[in-house]
Records
---
Amino acid sequence: MTGTTRIADGTDPLGALTDRLGGIAYGGDYNPEQWPADVWPEDVRLMREAGVNLVTVGVFSWSRLEPRPGVYDWRLLDTVLDLLHAGDIAVDLATPTAAPPPWFSKAHPDAGPQNAAGTRLTHGSRQAFCPSSQAYARASDAMVTALASRYADHPAVVMWHVHNEWGNHNALCYCGTSGAAFREWLRERYTSLDRVNEVWGTDFWGQRYGEWSEIDPPSETTAFRNPGQELDYRRFSSDALLARHRAESALLRELGPGIPLTTNLLGTLEKKVDGHAFARESDIVSVDHYLVSADPGNHVDLALNADLARGMAGGRPWVLMEHSTSAVNWQPVNVPKAPGEMRRNSLTHLARGADGIMFFQWRQSRAGAEKWHSAMLPHGGTETRTWGEVTALGAELAELSEVRGTRVAARVALLFDWHAWWALELEARPSERLRYLDAVRDWYGALWDLAITCDLIAPDADLTPYEIVLAPSQYLVTDADAESLHAFVRGGGHAVIGPFSGAVDVNDRIRGGGHPGAFRELLGLVVDEYLPLRVGESALLSDGSRAAVWTERVESRGCTARLRFAEGPEGGPARGGPAVTRHAYGGGAGWYAATALPAPALRALLGEACREAGVAAVAEVPPGVEAVRRAAGDRGYLFLVNHTDAEAVVPVGGGCTRIDGSELTGSVTVPAGDVVVVREAPVAHGEHAANYGEGS
Ligand code: GLA
């Protein structure tokens, strides 16, 4: 990936930034406009007390900075940036383009996004703009130009923060302007209307287009929409926002060259925009992550998203731009984090490669939609538990400063692909119970249980650093990406592929010659029929476990079965047939799961494939204890995160110490709910580098 190497002098932008900060970035969104000016000096004082060294300013301040069209008022930012600089707090300066002011929407009523039912959405919230609106583009470019011209040379500004969570609320717009832009996008991609008709299969249901002008966005209609059209509309919509991102970035790079640029991505929280595409445009990859409090496995989802952030950053360190100190306000019931949970969350992100730990937001709001969302400085001020934990975390991150710049080693890659996600979840599939994220989470969870680290990467990423590539749910795969996986296996790698993968091409057209089209040769099998299960049904497997959701009737064309559906009715519709297969291919092997495997069987499959590929656990940890290593040169750090209620004893090698330098002999005890960072004995120079990649 090129995303993190764009700074002209060849340095690593995040490394240079944390050098400038003197440590791991720590802070959050700072929204001073919500508070009277006499609060701001206190903010800076308390930030220093908490160990904050970086704040994101201006994310939603457009209506303050440009109160009337073309009339700018810089008093707020002038004062706040100077105050922060005097307090030695650096600024990640945001373009406020996620919140066009009310005057904009009033002046351009047709610039609001329109939903699939045809309703034009009004301002009064945020991101109330059509991604293809020229009026929005003009107003937003003017705002970015004015902002960057004024502050590019301000000594507090160390990073540009483009927009906020592109596409969180407005990615899919169905208005006439979007329709026209969609047609342009299609012309560019396909050149001819005949080609569009072909790839969308418009002869089905007599949808053939005779003129470009007949094509509209796939808004609400009588029955199923054309899947090719729907899929391309997803791509177009992501690209429309990417074009805005590029336009803002070009202005910032021109007016503030040398200042690294980021945009806060949403990881698996956001289906609508292709995160990889945005990450490639960033100097520093940053992500937001929020726990779903009702999910008992939410710490595994956190780890997954951290590993996706690292994958998007091409293995380099990245920044956690937002998470919460405690409760959020947007779930049905917003439960505060338990004591110690925020620290575990933060240090897990750090363990998985974050060199910045940031929150939404610095001071909890008194008014507005997010006043019940937690913050670093809660309503109750400095007497609160949260404040105590925030200041303690700031101090601990300062102690852990030596970890920054090191890398996380992963020899396993898990393919994460927004296009496959979009395609799998279009209408009229064999089963709506087969969900993209369920598969990714199940497979990731199995690796998490095995304490094996993986990078979540795009299917077109370089596979050569890995021994194993997992494709839990690659229903759609391009010819080039399928070939890349074949080449990887021919060269000695192991590919483990999940059910219903390889079925369609880039346009959601069935691949001929039998399922799973793209992977038949690699897997040495053909799927005679996909056999989804109804709610309440299950299929008994030969290891005694039961699969729900999905089964397939597989016929071997060279593969051998490692697990079978049981004989007899309990085995379900694919009774007696292979459920897990292995196929020697080139110098490696293609493994297939012909069902959504239950957790123990999935662990067994991935464990076996990893053993064959020579990939081991990071450490010998009891269940519920997470182990991740960061390393560079001769330095190595083992992070142990105990998510259980019992203390855990983990063996460590000779010469290891705690971060405070105290010796460890043979093992380390990790108390219940605690995190311990072990400084490993220095290894011969180059050994970690070979194993774990170069650090900064
Ligand atoms: C997102 C946004 C923030 C805030 C938080 C609340 O991450 O970027 O502005 O709304 O959600 O969780």
---
Amino acid sequence: MLLQENIDITRRHTFGIPTQARAWGEYESVDELCQLLHEARRRDMEFMPIGQGSNLLFVRDYDGMLLHSAIKTLQFVALDNNTVLVQAGSGWVWDEFVAYCIAQGWGGIENLSYIPGTVGASAVQNVGAYGVEACDVIESVSVIDVDTLEEQTIAASECAYGYRTSRFKKEWKNKYIVTAVTYRLTKTPAFKLDYGNLRAKVGDAPTLQSVRDAVIEIRRSKLPEPAEQGSAGSFFVNPVVAREHYNQLLQQYPDMPCYEVDAEHVKVPAGWLIDRRGWKGKSVGGAMVYQQQSLVIVNTGNARAGDVVQLASDIAFSVFEAYGILIKPEVNYVCAGFKV
Ligand code: EPU
């Protein structure tokens, strides 16, 4: 267990904006997590789980204890010739876990290759890419109840998974900390290649590794490398819009793309809306709209959180003004003691 005081966390969140935290606690087991929670409570400190910090914008220094999982357990059981249940500790770096599963020949998460973050975050955020979401393969989530310090296992069906959301982001936000996630993977993968140009890149004889390679190549061409340029991936979620509203917009913008949601709704790519408003490459201070993908705000080197907040709200206003569509951040704005 590690407990550091008053530390610089600039390199512990992917935006790379200079930030201090009052305490940083790192735990390798559920027992160590409970000790850290005791300590935070004893000192009457706020606390918040943090993985790779790839979806956070620290609006100011964090006046509490950040709790970072280093639980890297791994257990698996083959249910039959085809299905394997794999339980991974929340501290696994997500892409290392994906690579491990692919090396074992277990399919289901190859489309989710190269997403920044951790196993724990995958179950909170329901990460998704190229037609697959984590909830498609999550079987259950193991947690600690922060009030009782009891362990629980929650079935995925109880987690109200949706597009980039779950109960862990809503009513369970301050109730549970994820300690492990169990995924249902398969030895005879049903490849999902219909998103964008994935099929064209993979070719006619897909393997888990060739799908992974193609996804990594596409992501690298569109998204900044976290190690090279600060960002938090997609800054906004794609808005769900009434089909009637979308049909009206089509008259003015006939090339506006959409994804089907249900009979009454479609999802419109926020990147397209932002791009058509001319935001690519525009900046406020050190925050800039990424040239290759308008959905991403990057730190050009000296961004302050206020620059990002200003740029994001200017973008949202300009999109609303043009299309009557309100786009909302995917990134969590973190203030001391609470998230907005
Ligand atoms: N588009 C533009 N200009 C842009 C960006 C996009 O015109 O600057 C258009 C594209 O041409 C395409 C459409 O918008 O027609 C969608 O673009 P893309 O395929 O890049 O996907 P996205 O909707 O922008 C989402 C996820 C990504 C995920 C990709 C692939 C969200 C918020 N983002 O992006 O996830 O990798 O699909 O599945 O749903 C993340 O969550 O951090 C993330 C990167």
---
Amino acid sequence: MAIPSFDKHINKQALILAIESSCDDTSAAVLRGDVMLSNVMAGQQIHAEYGGVVPELASRAHQSNIVPVVQGALKKAKVESKDLNAIAVTMGPGLMGSLLVGASFAKSMSQSLGIPLISVNHMKAHIMAHFIQKEAEFKKVPEFPFLCLTVSGGHTQLVLLESPFELKVIGQTIDDAAGEAFDKAAKLLGLPYPGGPLVDKYAKEGNRNKFEFPIPKIQGLDYSFSGLKTSLMYFIQKNERNNERFKEENLRDVCASYQDTIVRFLLQKLKRAAKETGVKHIALAGGVSANSQLRNDIVALGKKEGLEVYIPEFQFCTDNAAMIAMEGQLSLNNQDYAKLSDAPKARFQGM
Ligand code: KG4
Ligand code: ZN
């Protein structure tokens, strides 16, 4: 089944190879139109022992991963490089050294094959992941206009999409990202990096009403998470004065209560954005959209408020090249090509 409103923006026959290397995952994917033929990933375990991503180690790991990952994506898709119509690559935001590895590789590949190079904004691609289809399996995609809550390790944004090309950031964090709030809390609780998935795991076995953390009071549709993390730090210190095993004994309840505060805060502003804009379709994107409470609670919010909810599949929540390929298809169809002189950018303003 086709969705005319989105299909008109892409060429269903175009074969695109995409490369993603903005942080600590090297990924390559092939899409024919909006259909995913492969999405290959190589993670980097090395950062866990340092409690966070070490940029220099990340670039080196990308260098050794990129050739096998790209070859793997082509092989899995049963596509030869000579059949490709374009190469898409993440040009930012992200870690400069990591971005450079992907961008340089993509540039040389597009040059040697004589096909267009397409520059992709990673944050926009997280949202476009909603439009990826799989062979022999049709998925319902968001209708425009829709609101997307994009929550990752580096960003927290409320985005209003009027069309695939008209995106407006209507709210964002003024300090830490939601993913950072999870990862920093995990570190305070003695859990390894990235801690978000572990907080989620322990929270499932805990009581979210056991402890109370203040929901940050921030104007309009913006967010702030740094105060929340600090309140957790003081909370742990205070309780450890009376019981040095407090963290171990209360891990599950602390995770559940802290996660509940983040999720309620995230959805409070999303609900407000839907009210203010009158938009009836809401979506989640980015690594934190893998969080089980956030996924459950947004569905409940949709039911209560009469909103249509779209949640990405797990494989498209965290960083992946299939989402880069999807966004690349939109630019390819518009003949919006990158120049060889275009350089990656660590930060992007707007969308
Ligand atoms: O989008 P992403 O893969 O990378 C960035 O672009 O930043 O997001 C990674 C973030 C990390 O902070 C990680 O802890 C968080 O997503 N994350 C989660 C979960 N899975 C990943 N946070 C909470 N619950 C999860 N299940
Ligand atoms: Zn990301």
